[in-house]
Amino acid sequence: MSTTLPLFWDLSSASKKERVDASVKLISALEQFQINHAPPQEGSDTEDGGGDALDLLNSPDVSYSIRRLVRGLASPRESSRLGFSVALTELLSRINTVTCTQVVSLISDSSKKQGSMTGQEERDILFARLFGLTAVIRSGLLVRQTPLPSSGSSNTQVSSIESYEEVLKKLIEIGEAKSWLRESAWWTVGLAIDAVQDSSVSWKAKALGTTVEYLFSKDKESFWSPEKVAMTLKLQPLWPNHDWDSTLAPVFKGPNILSAGNLAPLGRVLKESALDDEEASNPGSGSWKPQIHFVWDMLFDRLLPTSDSKQAPQGSFGEFFRIVVDESLFSSTSSAERKYWGFQVFKKALTRVSTDQLPMLFTKNLMRSWINHLSKSDRYLHKISLDVAKHIQSFVQENPALGFPLILQLTGINGSQEFDKLTRTKTVESILTVMDSEGIKNYIVSLLSQVDSKDADEDTAALNSRRTWIADQFAALIRNGSVPKSDEWIQVILDWYAVNGLYSIRKKSGSSSIQALRALPSPPFTEEFQAHCRTRLLSSLADLTSQTTVMKKGDITHKETAVASDGEFWISKVLSTLARLDKDTKHVDPLAPVDEETQAVLDRVGKVHEKLGKVSSEKREVARGFELVLSSLVLQCRCGEEDSVENLESCLSAASRMFASKKSSKKKSEQSALPADDEPEPIDVLVDLLIGYLENASAYTRSVANEAFSRVTGAAQESTIDLILTQLERRKPAELAEAREEVTDASSEEEDESSSEASDDDGSVSEESDDEDAQEIPNEIVDLLKTSGTDDDEDNESDEESEELMDDEQMMAIDGHLAEIFRSRKDEQRSKKGVDAQREATHFKNRVLDLIDTFVKREPQSPLNIRLILPLIDLVTKSGMDEKQLSDKAKGVLKNRLAKSKDVPADGRRDEVETILREIHQRVRKSHSAENLSVLSQSSLYLCRVLVQLNGDDCVVHIYQESLDDYISRKASQANLSFFQDFVRRFPALGSKLRDPLLAASSSAVNAYRRCQAFQLLSVILSQHGKVCDDQAIASSFQKNLQKTVLELASGAVDDQSSLSASQLKDLLKVVLLCIRQVQKSDSPPRKTGIWDPAAWNALHVRLAACERFKSSSPLLNMCRQVESVASQLKPPIQNGDGGKRKADEVVDITDSSKKSDRKKQRKSKS
Fold first, then answer.
1. CB 1083 within 8 A of CB 1033
2. Which stretch of DSSP H or E encloses residue 327?
């Protein structure tokens, strides 16, 4: 017993692992005890209730454990019921020396209700009885047929019909005692029925009859609950010959509880409302709980049997879900708790239905409730609604083929086309991302079928709104990078945009390769919708131009942007569609026919395209850039964009000169001998067009500009970079506003000239605009007139009388105020224009910086990168607070692109790099921002890398030495120590050349702080000595100067000639110690040369210990002692009696007469 008692405590542990381990150990021990137990030859009746009957055939440990486990079921401590019930179930299943009656009797005796019990104690007793009876059923003891081993009793039956009836009766009593326990109790009844059905007991039929008699008693024939429905579904297949008509009456008609006529009362039962009043709750329903009833699983097993089930479906699932779920749980009068159940039923049904049955789930009331509660976070059922949305998304990830049917339901008649917008979720978008290309194609076909479908009660405005929504959905499919792309469905969308945006369909063509021509829109598309299609065409091409496509040629794969899988630009594909449509005059008419002059230009484009396709591989990428720009301009021309023809002619001229053939180049060289104006380089013309694209600021032109520039970066020249940098120059807001006004005035003059021949009706329009301007008089004028007494609304006087109210003096008095009001109004308008112009200029510069970032990324070895540094630094250091985004982007180019680039220009001009580096150092000395200093430091290091590549090491050292001397000797210098430390750490070999100049400059430092900074930098240089990739050791002269300098500074501090503190002096000694140790580690050290004098350091230690300022600083004294100790290791041995003599140039004598007298005084005091 002592070995099993500790295990009972662990059965109540909150840890599942501890409970299971304790159960395994306990059952194993009890089995061993039972094996070793010898039962008596004679005994009393084993069928006698609990009591001593257990002791006849069981060992004392086993009988004690059974009683202890039964009693422990009533314990409220932690997880006692779980642990004890598991152990009891396993023990009863292992031993064959107990009967069902004995265990049930023990459970009944230990769980008797007493009148003095509290509510909590009563609940514990009921749970104990329920868990105990469940253990009897699960262990198989309820239907066990194995007889008891030999005993003194003639009755060896373990289970019987009587024990079954006793268990059934007690379970029903538990359910009637507390309504909130009825579900669990009847679920256990279902376990008992399954156990009897799966067994081969002789009393099986009698047990089923008894069960029906107990569960469907006549006194409660009108009371129905979900538990009763569940038992009906379980018992009907087991006892088909029973008269179920009378048993289910009067609530249900007929034996089939899932028939159409029984669905309405079934819905009220499952809703747990009164059968005669849907609004009233069932009196025996108890408190609400969030988990749905187990009966729903049984219902779905009948309605939606699994594939491995042999049972045929019963009833209509569509009718069942509509009546029992949608019109019951989701009715307008249903409570939030019932709707919560409905959402859980929906989730359970979603995983069971087939593709054909999926639309049956998205019923009207369910979708209304779901969208309503999903739209706002403060709705009562928002959390469960969001959980349903996530469940749908995860369900589609597991079953991508169901994505398309789900989207049709979410955006269908019971849903909303703006489902994601209404619910503020990305449900439809997330479903699209997990669908395959075939599913996306089916979705597109479904959307196209809705373009012309019109309901009888739908007006034209609603039809146009749906068409606009469909066009937006097509654009969203292309824009979403997570949606699996396919050339086939993308081409369908682009063709649809092109046909409906640029043409009108005269006659449909069912056999056309262009799918948009296979249907004739009815009613015809409006001009607004056609303009919307043109806009969506350009925006979709903008998205496609910035997206990357994986191209495969044989076994080689590479990524390319702006192209389809066959390598052709998407814009070129659209132009090919337009060319085919232009020839198909039978079916379409262009909305804006092309005139002859424009057509001639477009013909030239075709010829230039052919020439670009034959360019050699070296210039192929640049030719592709020109091709992209030409195609984009052609499409803009077809869409009616302004200046597109003029820009197209410029681009054609540049492309012709850029890729001129050898014959034409000879002719041009001959013509160039004649005097002519300087023409810009072809690449400059193209880049100028791209900059104009950026000024337009549409997504289409911006994406084309960035992509085209990324392809022509290899052809960029100095003039190209200068052209780009010119756009970054800072201009005053007034100048920007004036330039903007000039453009506006020019355009207004053109409009005036074009409208000079207009009719007199235009006069009325101008008069109306004048009236609007007159109505914009500021309130200050009205207030001024009221103050003067001339604005009296109460008296309806005539104009003549109102004029007599003011004389000349009053008019002169308010004249100045009126002038001031109008002047301030004009200033406000001018200021607003200046702010707007400045904001637009900032956005434009941001786009130009994208070009620079692209160039640096694509051409890291180009010497033109050097020209970018100073303008970018200007943007970082001179931008205002309203240009922070611009400053951050320029900073990112400098620090992340240039400074971290692995490659640097190898053929730059050394004088240019040197000039820029000196300018940066000049700015370092004047910069007041630590953040700007960091940018300047990174830029300086980049230029140092370039100079080192150009063999300009001495130049780099000289420039840094000048800045270092200025920093140490001039207090106003704004450089910091980090600026020089970054250089030393990045270039240790060059940093080592600053040792001697730095040590010399420290003597002339402007103050003690800068002197300490110098020694701190010197410490960094010495620590980098081991990383220098040469055989140069630390020079003896430097060691001598360092020892001399530090000893002099320390002596000056002792004599109060300098303001060095103890910590500062300690840092100086650290540098000395580091130098000596580096000498010791050197591959070729000056061995025992006598440079370092231990006696001098000993004398310094004595003086520091005697000084009032430093004698209490133990770290300083210890550091000085360390220096002396390490220096003594480099002292040469004394030879011939004169080896210890010091030379004047090797040792610094810091002792004077005053110091000697101090030593004498110390000796006398000691004696």
1. yes
2. none
Please tell me the distance from the alpha carbon of residue 537 to that of residue 757, in angstroms, as a whole number. 36
How far is CA 125 from its chain centroid? 52
In whole angstroms, what is the distance from residue 974 CA to residue 20 CA?
Answer: 71
Other beta carbons less than 10 A from residue 896's beta carbon: 14
pLDDT at res. 45: 47
CA distance 755 to 748: 10
C-alpha 1067/C-alpha 381 separation (Å) is 68
- The 10s digit of each residue's pLDDT in 623-645 is 999 999 999 999 999 998 888 89
pLDDT at 155 over 60: no
Q: Count CB-CB contacts under 10 A for residue 482.
A: 10
Residue with tokens 């919307």: 532
Alpha helix segments (H runs only) across 376-486: 382-398, 403-410, 419-423, 427-434, 437-449, 460-479
Q: For residue range 853-907, list pLDDT tens digits in order.
A: 999 999 999 999 999 999 999 999 988 888 889 999 999 999 999 999 999 998 8
Q: Residue 850: CB partners within 8 Å, gap ≥ 6?
A: 706
Q: How confident is the model at residue 281 (pLDDT cuts 50, 70, 90)?
A: low
For residue 526, name the pLDDT band (cuts at 50, 70, 90): very high
| Rounded CA separation 453/609 (Å) | 42
The rounded distance, in Å, linking the Cα atoms of 434 and 437 is 10
The residues, ordered by sequence, that sit 6+ positions from 708 with a Cβ below 8 Å of its Cβ are: 625, 626, 628, 629, 632, 686, 690
How many angstroms separate the CA atoms of 1046 and 1068, rounded?
7
| Cα–Cα distance, 164 to 207 (Å, whole number) | 7
Element (H, E) at 522: none
DSSP letter (8 states) at residue 551: E
How much is the mean pLDDT over the chain? 83
Which residues have CB under 8 Å from 491's CB, separation 6+?
Answer: 564, 573
How many whole angstroms separate alpha carbon 75 and alpha carbon 79?
9
Q: In Å, what is the CA distance from 734 to each residue of 405, 697, 827, 830, 844?
A: 59, 22, 12, 8, 17
- DSSP H/E element including 872: helix 865-878
Neighbours of 555 (CB within 10 A): 5
For the stretch 408-432, pLDDT in tens is 999 988 999 889 999 999 999 999 9
Number of Cα atoms under 13 Å in the Cβ half of residue 365: 19
| Nearest CA among 201, 200, 281, 187 for reference residue 230 | 187
DSSP 281: B
Task: List the single range of 130-134, 807-811, 1117-1121 with lowest mean pLDDT.
Answer: 807-811
- pTM (two decimals): 0.76
Q: Which of 255-269, 288-302, 936-950, 1118-1132 has the lowest mean pLDDT?
A: 1118-1132
| pLDDT tens track for 752-805 | 444 444 444 444 444 444 444 444 545 555 565 555 555 544 444 444 444 445
CA 784 remoteness from chain centre: 57
> How far apart, in whole angstroms, are the C-alpha atoms of residue 1119 and residue 605?
82
548-553/503-505 β-pairing: unpaired
* Alpha helices (H) in 755-864, listed in sequence order: 761-774, 779-788, 799-803, 808-858
Residue among 359, 440, 428, 357 nearest 401 (CA): 440
b/e for 1032-1059, b at 16 or more Cβ within 10 A? ebbeeebbbbbbbbbbebbbebbeeebe
Q: How does 808-830 read in b/e, with b if 16+ C-beta sit within 10 Å?
A: eeeeeebeeeeeebeeeeeeeee
